[in-house]
Amino acid sequence: MRKVMLLAVAALTMGAFAGAELSEKYKEWPKGPAGFLLTKKEKKEYAKLTSDDQAQAFIDLFWARRDPDLETAVNEFKVEFDRRVEYADAHFGYGKVPGSLSDRGHTLIVMGPWAHRSALPPGEFVRRLESEGEANTPSEGGAGAEVWVYRQGQFPGDIKADQITFIFLQSRIGLEDYLFARSDSRTVAAMRALNEMPEALLLHPNLKEVPKLGMLRGSKAATPADLAVFAVEPRPWPEGAAVRAVTGVQTEAVHPLWVFLQVPQGVPGGARLVGRVRRAGGGDEGTFVKAMEPVATAAGHAWELALPVGAGKWLVDLALVGAEGPVAVTTVEAEIEALAADATYISPFIWGIDVRQDVNAHLGDPFNVGGWHVLPNVGDRYTAKDSVSYFCYVVRPGLVAPESAAGDGQGAEPQPNVELLVKVSRDDKVLGELPPQKVNLSKVYGDVWMFGNALPLTGFRQAGSYVLEVTLRDAVTGVARSARIPLVIGSEGAS
User: Is the peptide bond before 224 cis (omega within 30 degrees of 0)?
Assistant: First the structure.
């Protein structure tokens, strides 16, 4: 009996031990791309976890501690991380090694995009080393190399250098492994930066739990009682109210849905906004409830929203609720395009006559392009004394080196090569068309640029309905974006 009891106890002990192990998914997580971001302390903490629930809670908090803005539902850091992993897997893989686990992938994920990158063909790197007295780096047969340069501001500030250099070498010609050239003395500061960056990226080290937020910045999740407003029939919708949705830009990888809701003068203001975002194919994405001050417009009052949704088709339920109940309730359909991680992207145009410069604007603020706040002209009505302004973002434009005064282009920063096409029609008849014109873009941040232009309507002497068709085309990548802007020209004072 004693032997049986001992065996039973042993079986129970082994069962408890086996149940304490992480599943394969969570065992492998620190060995994946996210593992490059773990601090030494986090590595020790993760090694002590004994259940999948603990591991998932750790991972959720891991990303939250790196979120640059804890008051929004989207984690911009995680979105950018996913974009870098996608790019690395597409460009840096070799053999059975995923690109995101290669040395170049490691560097991109931790350090971000390089300031300058150059590729050296087989033999060229060795010749340069020999000329500089640095020929101590192994590269069989003088295989190829890549050099990545990062400038000040892209690496931890305690590294006293204007720039750091990563050198990657093929271990042999034809093998696309491109390994760290660790023995090259010029990479000492770079390798130090790579080791220190995980600590630098930890923005909220003392955060103990993941914030529970609504989808809008500073909002709370809507309760079932809040959401009951969408079941009210008939839905109130004041005459003259309008809603418009368009894809915006917050970073190279984050493209929120911008929504503009306007009610006319005389309609009682709403005390708060209630929202629910649903996937067109079924399923809720998130909710919000928030008291918001409207923006005064010529036609009434407007509320502007930036909703952090990904690629796909969406249904956005919106309710403007006042003290006496719902003022305006609607559902708007929208779609966010799916894009490759390294593709050029031109955002949809936004246009209007009320354009306000906002020096305190943040990238991603709704209907704000590079500090220019464009209030959509949802009625499309103008007079000949107005000017219609139209703006868009251009992400990762194709760059070309401009020619210098000497004609050699040396020393000049590469610039976008973008052209604008403009056409005006009425009743499907083209009234005028301009040939393609090269236009300038203004850099906003990173690989995000902006374009803006204005067309005076003084030439539209006859009242009526026109269409202004504008097309912005990247001459390097071939990517283009067009917009058909309705112009209902009335008599003076009718806009």
Answer: no
328 burial (CB, 10 Å; 0-12 / 13-18 / 19+) is: buried
CA nearest to 291, candidates 274, 308, 307, 278: 274
Round to whole Å and give the CA distance between 191 and 216. Answer: 39
Tell me phi and psi for residue 274, to 5 degrees. -115, 135
Contact 259, 330 (CB under 8 A): no
Rounded to whole angstroms, the Cα distance separating 171 from 124 reads 15
Q: For the chain, list the domains and their CATH numbers.
A: 26-200 (no CATH), 212-338 (2.60.40.10), 340-495 (2.60.40.2550)
65 to each of 31, 37, 59, 199, how far by Cα in Å?
A: 20, 12, 10, 11
Tens of pLDDT along the chain (495 residues)? 444 433 343 333 333 333 358 999 999 999 999 999 999 999 999 999 999 999 999 999 999 999 998 888 789 999 999 999 999 999 999 999 999 999 999 999 999 999 999 988 766 655 555 455 444 444 444 678 999 999 999 998 888 889 999 999 998 888 889 999 988 888 999 999 999 999 999 999 999 998 877 888 888 899 999 999 999 999 999 999 999 999 999 999 889 999 999 999 888 766 799 999 999 999 999 999 999 889 999 889 999 999 999 999 999 999 999 888 899 999 999 999 998 888 999 999 999 999 999 988 888 999 999 999 999 998 899 999 999 999 999 999 999 987 754 555 556 789 999 999 999 999 999 999 999 999 999 999 989 999 999 999 998 989 999 999 999 999 999 999 999 999 999 876 444
CA 472/CA 349 separation, integer angstroms: 10
Q: Under 8 Å CB-to-CB from 324, ≥6 apart: which residues?
A: 268
pTM of the model: 0.72
- What one-character DSSP code corresponds to residue 200? H
> What does DSSP assign to residue 220?
B
Question: How many angstroms separate the CA atoms of 320 and 327, rounded?
Answer: 5
> CA dist 468 to 321, 347, 435, Å?
36, 18, 14
Q: Which residues contact 301 (CB under 8 A, 6 or more apart)?
A: 262, 263, 265, 267, 269, 294, 295
Q: What's the CA gap between 16 and 54, in Å, rounded? A: 16
